[in-house]
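In response to a reviewer's request, we include the raw inputs and outputs for one of the modeled complexes. The two entities were modeled together in a single run.
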Amino acid sequence: MVGYGLYVDQARPFLPANAIIQASGMTKELERAGLALDLALQGQKVAVVSGGDAGVYAMAGAVFELAAARQLNLGQKIGQLSIQVIPGIPALIAGAALLGAPLTHDFCAISLSDRLTPWPVIEKRLDLASQAGLVVALYNPKSHGRDWQLAKAAEILGRNLAPRTPVGIASRCGREGQKTSLTDLGRLALQEVDMQTLVIVGNANTFVYQGYMITPRGYADKYAVKG
Amino acid sequence: MVGYGLYVDQARPFLPANAIIQASGMTKELERAGLALDLALQGQKVAVVSGGDAGVYAMAGAVFELAAARQLNLGQKIGQLSIQVIPGIPALIAGAALLGAPLTHDFCAISLSDRLTPWPVIEKRLDLASQAGLVVALYNPKSHGRDWQLAKAAEILGRNLAPRTPVGIASRCGREGQKTSLTDLGRLALQEVDMQTLVIVGNANTFVYQGYMITPRGYADKYAVKG
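The model returned the following structure tokens for the whole complex.
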């Protein structure tokens, strides 16, 4: 099993006693992917673990990216490996369930990390997504050395959405220290967030009812429901 | 337990023998939500089942929408009920895992059903999402009486994306009859789809490698990986 330390520790109890475990630090995605491919090419059965869902800002992409690059550039027989992605519950789904039903209409996920994506691309996505009326789930709102992105994102979203637009904040979903709170777009820049926090910004129809954040699909309107 | 017949049948084996089961037809979301609230107000413990994740185009939103409308308009004591959403694996995540790693970068979900959303709103979202470079997961690409939406969506996405943009198609994920295939945007309009099909349209960087659909996050570029 190969993975980031935090996730390896969570998976450890489910492994057989003779399993070989290789943990590595954050931002070492390619190192982990390379190790997994090396072991697999040696004939080992390898599991790469991720938090949430492996396909959402996580290790599945890194493994495939590296596999393709190695086959192309080194001629390694990666194509012979069988790679299977096991789906999980991504943070935006776990967080949404804790908050109520904020993703019931069209939505998007945008990462605020500019480590691999130029910031102007992220700004453009925030602007167009809020113009489009998509509910916006913000991944990686802050990290060591990145402390201004959330305030800037709130400003950009605020060009297309009212300050009172509901915002849900969910941290460490399904893990120790799990925490949620509700605020609004006008106060988003002031919230405490970190790399383990997911932020969900509603659309123009999102409302808060009894502490739940809800994006209506429009059933009640369509059928003129009054009770 | 309250739910659409197909999902009720899947959940039935996990229920105790004395459970009361109420199944109803497709498009009867509000009827089911209303029944669930009625039973809960009578003091019953009620589970509403959905396919995939209850919060993504599914029953969680309908229950909350109706609860809020009833409290507001009828003064029912809905606020006393405790409502909990149990997260699941939505079709876009299950489908993505079967296809490879198409959602590794920013993505969105857009439903092509214009039953509750005006079609011009859907068109605008498709246009802006593809301008933004978001991977686009299309829900409800076709249903009885709706047969032209997928071709129109392909045309709109094609204004911002090349015809060779990879497209993954996944049907009945995790259920009997599960099926996936790969095509491209230029041929999307010709594909066989139905209400149980999810369509994932890549972004400008998405590629196909050994039958897997992959949207790179940019690890290999960033670190100039050649092997």
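As requested, we also summarize the result in words. Residues 182 and 211 of chain A are 8 Å apart (CA to CA). Chain A touches chain B through 78 residues (CB under 8 Å).
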